[in-house]
Amino acid sequence: MPKNKKTDIEQYVINRIKEIRIEKGFSQEDIASALDFTRGFIGQIESPNNPAKYNLNHLNILAKELNCSPKDFLPDMPLIETRKKKTK
């Protein structure tokens, strides 16, 4: 079984964006259009087994498109990572 290729915070943000876009009636195609991506790439971002993710510029654009604050995509408190950290 493939491991999650995203950190807990990355997956949290992606999940929140997905929740908000669905609540507001936006499709993956709508989000892709706003970011000038393909719908398939948004699907890759939303897949936990793909390393694709949003960056801060994307969050800003999505907040404008979804009529919310970028803070709405973030947890109220820091998350405790469940992935093992690499040692140097």
Overview of the structural elements:
This protein is an all-alpha fold and 88 residues long. The chain is 48% helix and 0% strand. The protein has 4 helices and no strands.
Shape: globular
**Extended strand count:** 0
CATH fold-level assignment of one domain: 434 Repressor (Amino-terminal Domain)
Query: For the terminal residues, how far apart are their CA atoms?
Result: 27 Å
User: How many helix segments?
Assistant: 4
Q: Name the CATH homologous superfamily of one domain.
A: lambda repressor-like DNA-binding domains
**Strand-and-helix sequence, N→C?**
HHHH
- Low confidence ranges: none
* Rg, nearest Å: 13 Å
- The CATH first-level class of one domain comes to Mainly Alpha
Q: What structural class do you assign from the helix and strand content?
A: mainly alpha
Largest sheet: none
Strand content: under 5%
* CATH architecture descriptor of one domain: Orthogonal Bundle
Please tag this protein with its features.
88 residues; mainly alpha; 434 Repressor (Amino-terminal Domain); 4 helices; globular
Short description:
With 88 residues, this protein is mainly alpha-helical. It has four helices and no strands.
Task: Give the SSE layout.
Elements: H1 8-23, H2 28-35, H3 39-46, H4 56-65
Helix pairs in contact: 2-3
